[in-house]
Structure formats: C-alpha cells, structure tokens
C-alpha cells in the first residue's frame, strides 16, 4: 500500500474523532518546537496508540476517598448503588466505589421530573456515574460531605434482588464472590495483601534477590505422590507442582545466589480444615552461602517486620475501623524453641499432643503460641530442630545429631505459616538421605544432577500468602482470605 493510500484512512479517522484530532495537533506542535507541521510518518495504528495514552480518553472521575479534601463545586464520581432512600420530598443515594462511600442527595421537584424518576428506578448494585455539586456539611453523618445530584447515568443495571446478604453463609457468599467483594472489608483485605507483597518485593530487591517463575507442570513427582494432581499431558502424564522447591535449588546451582517467587502451587489433599486449600499462592525464597538455617530465620524476620510495618502505616486506621484490630509490629529476634522443648512446655500446660510422629497438631501450635505470647511477649515463635523422619530428604541434618534437621516452622497467632531449612548440598549425603527415606533415586535424577555439578551451601522457606493475610486480619478461615478459594469441593467461580 502506498503512503498516499495510508494517509486517507488516517485523515478520515482523525476528522471523525475530535479527541484524537486534538491530540495529533498537539503532537505536531510539540514535535516541531511550536510550529504546526504534518505527520506523514504516523499511521492509523500509531495515532490510536497515542489516543490510548491520553488521560482525557478516560472518565474524569474522582475517587470517593478524595472528596473530603476537595473544595465545594462540580464533581463526577463512579460506583455502585449501595443504598437508596426514595422519599416523597427528597431522595438519598449511597454510592460506593473501591475507596469509600458518599451520600448523594436530590430534592424532588413538585412537578414531574425525569431525574427523580431515574433515581426511583435504581436497583441495589447498579453501576452509575453521578455528576453534581460537592458540598461539605458537618451534619452529614457519612463523612461530612454530600453531592447534590445534577445528572445520573446508569452504566450497568443490576437485578433488583441480591442473592447474598450480610448474614449469608460463607459457602453461598463464595458462590457470589464478585458481589461479596463489594464489601469494604474485603476490598481492604486485597489492599492489605498487595501491600504485603510489595513490602516483600522491595526488601528482596534491596538485598540483591532476583525473581523467578518456575514451571507448574512437572514430569515427575517433586516430593511425594500423596499430595499431587496427576493429569494427562499429550502422550503421557504430568503433575501439578506442589512446591517450587527443586527449581529454587536449581537456581542455586545456576549461580543466581538469591531468588524468590510468588506463584500458585497445588496440593491434592482432601482437607476441609480452616487453613488448607488445594490451590494457593506460595511465597518462596532461597539464598546461597549461608552458615545455617539461622540465616534463613533472620531474613524471614526482616521480611515479616517490613510487611507488617508497611500494612500498619498504610492501612492501620482502616483495619482498626473495619476489623477492630490494632496491628502490632513485632520486635526482633523472634523467640526460638526446639521442637522437643516445645512438647515439654505444652505438656506442662496440660495438653499432650496425640500425634505419634513427633510433630505438633493444631492445638499444640495454639498452645506454644499462647506460651510465647504470655511468657515471651511475642506473637511469633520459631520451632526448630525437627526430627528427620518428619522432614523432607533434602533438609540438612545436624553434625552432632543425625536424627535432627536444620529446619524450622514459624508459628504466628497459633498457626504455622512457614517451613524453612538449610538444604543438603553435598551430593553423596543427599543421595544417602533420599535412600534413607525410601525414595527411588531414578525418579530424582533431574534433581540430583543439580548437585553433581556443584551447589553452594543454601537454604530457604515456603510460606502461604493467604494464610498470612488470614492471620493478620484474624479471619476465621482461609476461604474468607482468598480472592477465589479452591478446595476439594469448589472449582467455581
């Protein structure tokens, strides 16, 4: 196509679109030092791209949370109808957006009025654009401001009856999660989650970590067959990854030194507890050139303090308002208690863990957490030195006691959130520990190859993001803390 043929559709497109015409003229003036020229090199796609970058192509909408700081005058907001009071002489609409809610007022004229009729026809949950006059008035209970309605556009009407209410069960609310999330506390929950992730990323990047994205389809089981989803994969089978552990360690062999990943993992565990899911976001970290698992614990302390501090600074007041929780920034170091000693403490408190493998059950975790809070003044506690028979084969064992591993669990508010350890990097020791666990070496060949070509001393941890959010906001179960929960009996929405 010739340049002349290209220019004709461009010219027509510009002439038909005042915004783009204005934009191209502005571009011409800027490009030529203030002198208008033609733009023969710009094609239609380029002009469209310029238009997309122009903020004037977006609705000039004020966030409701910003209104209090604005002066009285014309304003435009967009959100959904939370409440409508349609009275004889005056109409009140509560509009909510992602940042808050505001009262919109419209005095009914004595005669027939199309705007009043439009307000009367509104349904709960409809998305609207409201134009009017912002007015500060201390008598208004909702934030001391209101909008005097001048214009209303229904962007998307909602069915009149909502399928859920405040007292609806969690299972039904999960069925209608997109409506459930309009509650301000859930909106805040997602903001908190975002702030946590941002704080962690900033701390990792400040300490020379790199981010990886490991595959979630694996050719062979990573650690155990019991908790893996097996699926058809072309002519064979694949497994959904239950952890990026092997790939994190591959990164250590690759010389990446310090890595982190925030990504989904899958557990084929038919558990219906308050803290388990079949798919969740895992927070994983691995670092080389460590002396022991103590280095990993110390770094995780830093991460938790950074995240909690960021949440308190950014959302503390709002969390107190909606969740009635005062965020506490923990001191460091966190208490460390060997697992064997933890059992003794728990028994002295009147509870004997019924498990026979030496690990703690949920009540045991709650008991040791209460002890740490009451006696040590801390919401966090590291449990260390786990027996080898309840830890994976790749956890390094103590030099002076082969029965114990250089590993830990981090307990927060009565619930385990992390398992971490120093990894075994010596190939001959690693192979022996795998055999000791009864694992087939052939199924681990790709993993063992990492170590045959050299790996520095390293360690790391895995932590569930949703569980952290659940505990921070003291939610009753992990389903409440998930954007879209996945469990043994839930695959929708």
For the structure shown, list the relevant keywords.
single chain; OB fold (Dihydrolipoamide Acetyltransferase, E2P); BirA Bifunctional Protein, domain 2; 3 domains; eight-stranded mixed β-sheet; five-stranded mixed barrel
Would you give an account of this structure?
This protein is α+β, with helices and mostly antiparallel strands. It has three domains: 3-57, no CATH class; 64-156, OB fold (Dihydrolipoamide Acetyltransferase, E2P); 184-472, Bira Bifunctional Protein, Domain 2 (BirA Bifunctional Protein, domain 2, 2-Layer Sandwich), CATH 3.30.930. It is built from 14 helices and 18 strands. The chain has helices at residues 3-16, 18-31, 44-53, 114-120, 170-175, 177-180, 184-206, 245-253, 293-323, 339-348, 362-376, 427-436, 445-452, 465-472; strands spanning 73-86, 90-97, 100-107, 127-136, 145-156, 210-211, 217-218, 230-233, 236-240, 258-266, 279-288, 336-338, 380-384, 397-398, 401-405, 407-412, 415-422, 458-464. Helix 10 crosses helix 11.
